[in-house]
Design brief:
Two copies of one chain form a homodimer.
Chain A lengths: L2 E8 L9 H16 L8 E5 L3 H5 L20 E5 L4 H14 L6 E8 L5 H9 L14 H15 L4 H19 L13 H5 L8 E3 L2 E2 L8 E10 H7 L3 E11 L13 H14 L8 E4 L4 H10 L10 H4 L16 H5 L3 H16 L13 E8 L4 E10 L1
Parallel strand pairs in A: 2-3, 2-4, 9-10
Antiparallel strand pairs in A: 1-7, 1-8, 4-7, 5-6, 8-11, 10-11
């Protein structure tokens, strides 16, 4: 049985005046409206949220979905958490429930409200997604963990400091440029590659050598939501339908020191399995939205999805492959770097972006004739990995 | 397609020297051993955990399951959270994945390590499972919320203070008595009804009028785990198999003031649906393990499962119905009151208890000839409700 998306919603990503409750309810209501499915027909709700406890003193967030519509009362509602991949984790559970024949229409909401805390608080709360005893508790942060990947990659592929810095700046600049057309994006700065590269130290300080401020994604509030059903039912409601053709999750060791620190091993495995399930290769993709929590993560993602051989990722920025008008636009939305990264919402945001792009009503630049897209969302230091393939069915 | 349990593990519930990581790994290893399923054949893992963030600074706990066995590396692993029902919520997701044909052998672990915090810290962390802005933030605690149920019940059914106190003491005493035979139980006190009723104020202080200390469940560390597969596969491995014949989840409003405070409305609905799915009534049950986070919750559960008409619950204690040798033993294990309540583990603990009872190797007193059992697990103030029916298949 196959599952498709029949409704989407995407909030602004920014520093919001709205509470996590209001973000959740607005997302749910709006996705239902967009889908045309009535609240009483929704028979399963999944909420992707990373740390309502840490950011908002609110665990057990899922039942708040009853406040979306009185007709939802008694509907099963479940919170799913796998760090920054909580959104896709929620989609995965909804998909399985539909495939099991248990649920006909599922509502999935990803939501996070992070700006309740100051930078120090956010950093600490995010660090709880690392292996706390050896990482978070020892002062390791996520910029620090991804700095290890950057150093590992540089060493393995014998890049100079400048070569690495230039590559990462190209990624940041591409994503800033793409986000200019994304109405929901948190950043709207027409900074070129030269601008990013030449920012004064004060405006682009070192966060965790070799990663600078402009290598890091943003602290954001936001929500996104989708309605899922069987492709069969979706086809009754729509002429064109976006199918979630595959969603594969792989897991690696939580602690980074148990794994290579120069590539995304489990991520690669998730993508490989997803391609196999659909019977495609990277050559069949028309776009990809990947988890650029740090610019180095996007670089490693190029290689994890098979777009470049190991160590060849940087060339894709020079030959234009990953640019919005290139062979495979990556993060046409601006990515986490520029659109923002309310962590529990990010996976669902990617699903919304893929769906709208395939329907020809993109958030951000349009990719003409797009029929197949990949989303790659992960939690932790590439620990909980989710590769999803979305496909237009006419 | 039907799903069955083929391996179980239950840790001691107590104040443990072990970390949450050790509890998780021991539970996973032991359930795998008990099942006979090899780690390499496990293709899905679900972790029920309420607040690793609040208690242990550890969100994103699911990937730690990779440390159970190197052969598990890359296996999907997902944390599920719905307050004190997180364990059953995890079982539900595993069941759906098997029914969807996505997973053949699932490992489900419920775990919580609460004693890292002092009483004040535990109370605050648990209060994050209430609707924070109007409840937790306003100083409302879970004893306070369930006190509202106790007051509502007393008023609606015109009980005197003494009548209510006596009923609740009978529940506590029954559960203390039952736990004497439960090797994993946190409390082992041969306190009779008279003992509990006559405890001096100092030893049984008022926590939230009318609930006293001995009306409250315990603060515990612990873990429980099960291995699930299709009933068909289970039958190939075993002569006698315990089927998870139904698992229904219903949700009510998170905020208690949006609901009646004298009965468990959504809980009743979950049980009704579960009975219907299996085609049974309360008369077909041989035992029940219910969510007695407070003694008043067990009383309301009697009525929610249809064992007594509204307001008639207290009689079941006098006529012996719910006693271990009665018509329908309730909490033969000692329940949350006496066995302990490591919140994320509780739902999986109930699954282990039901399975072992049906296989004739009970944790706690044996119920001769038991063939069908109910578990009732909820999160929050009866907000996220899960009714499960376990059935012996010979």
């Amino acid at each position: 049985m196959s599952v498709s998306v029949i409704g989407t919603y995407h909030s602004d990503f920014n520093t919001s005046d709205k509470s996590i409750y209001d973000l959740l309810v607005e997302a749910g209501k709006s996705a239902l409206d967009d889908s045309g499915v009535k609240a009483k027909d929704i028979d399963g709700i999944w909420i992707g949220n990373y740390s309502g406890g840490g950011f908002n003193n609110q665990e057990h967030l899922a039942p708040y979905a009853m406040n979306i519509d009185p007709e939802l009362r008694f509907t099963q509602s479940t919170r799913v958490e796998n760090a920054c991949a909580s959104g896709t984790a929620a989609i995965k559970e909804a998909k399985a429930a539909i495939e099991a024949g248990e649920v006909d229409y599922a509502l999935v909401i990803g939501v996070e409200k992070m700006t309740t805390l100051d930078t120090k608080g956010v950093t600490k709360t995010l660090a709880m997604a690392s292996y706390w005893p050896d990482e978070g508790a020892e002062g390791m942060t996520f910029p620090g963990l991804f700095a290890e990947f950057a150093k590992g990659y540089k060493k393995r592929h014998k890049l100079s400091n400048d070569e690495l810095r230039e590559t990462l700046a190209k990624i940041a600049a591409k994503n800033y440029s793409n986000a200019l057309e994304n109405q929901y994006a948190q950043m709207s700065k027409d900074w070129t590659y030269e601008d990013v590269l030449n920012l004064p130290e004060k405006k682009n300080p070192m966060i965790a050598e070799p990663l600078r401020l402009h290598d890091c994604s943003l602290v954001s509030d936001g929500a996104a939501a989708i309605v899922l059903t069987t492709t069969e039912k979706a086809k009754e409601l729509r002429d064109e339908v976006v199918e979630l053709a595959s969603l594969v999750q792989t897991t690696d060791y939580l602690a980074l020191d148990k794994r290579p620190q120069d590539e995304f091993v489990a991520t690669k495995e998730a993508v490989r399995q997803a391609y196999n399930q659909v019977g495609i290769t990277v050559d069949d993709l028309d776009f990809a939205e990947v988890h650029d929590c740090f610019t180095i993560a996007e670089l490693l993602a190029y290689e994890a999805i098979g777009l470049a051989e190991d160590g060849q990722g940087p060339k894709l920025l020079d030959d234009g492959t990953v640019m919005v008008d290139g062979r495979l636009p990556v993060n046409a939305s601006g990515g986490l770097k520029a659109k923002g990264h309310p962590v529990g919402a990010t996976g669902v945001s990617m699903a919304v972006l893929a769906t709208r792009q395939l329907l020809g009503e993109p958030v951000g630049p349009k990719i003409e004739g797009a029929e197949i897209g990949l989303t790659l969302n992960f939690g932790g230091s590439a620990v909980s990995n989710y590769a999803s393939i979305y496909k237009l069915i006419k």
